[in-house]
Amino acid sequence: MRNIVFIKVDLEEGEKPLSNSRLVATFTLMAAHTNTQAMSLSDGKGVEIPIPAGTQLPFEQVNLADIFVRSKSGEVAFVVGHTAG
Which residues contact 49 (CB under 8 A, 6 or more apart)? Predict the structure, then answer.
């Protein structure tokens, strides 16, 4: 059975995982169109990728706890999808 995943992530200056616990899902990560700068996306181990405001990125069967985002305080990202399975 699949469950809906909808998470609002309040971004901060430091890296923050999309989920604090293991959550494998197929989802779209969206940088809010109201953000004033690009958010950074990483695996917490290497290079950060800048994601401009309004950008949507699809992921298939990925653990949200393994993905880290950051930006200035007050910026927002959304995760919309469903659990894998």
Answer: 40, 41, 42
The pair of structure tokens assigned to 31 is 């940088």
Lookup result for tokens 């293991």: 22
Question: Would you kindly state where each structural domain of the chain is located, as residue ranges?
Answer: 4-83
CA distance 39 to 16: 11
- pTM of model > 0.85: yes
Sign (positive or negative) of CA dihedral 37, 80, 43, 47:
negative
Quick: pLDDT tens for 12-64.
999 999 999 999 999 999 999 999 999 999 998 888 999 999 999 999 999 99
Cα–Cα distance measured from residue 81 to residue 56, given in angstroms and rounded to the nearest whole number: 12
DSSP letter for 53, please. T
- The pLDDT score that the predictor gives to residue 10 is 95
Question: What CATH fold (topology level) applies to the domain 4-83?
Answer: Jelly Rolls (2.60.120)
Could you give the 3-state DSSP secondary structure of residue 19?
coil
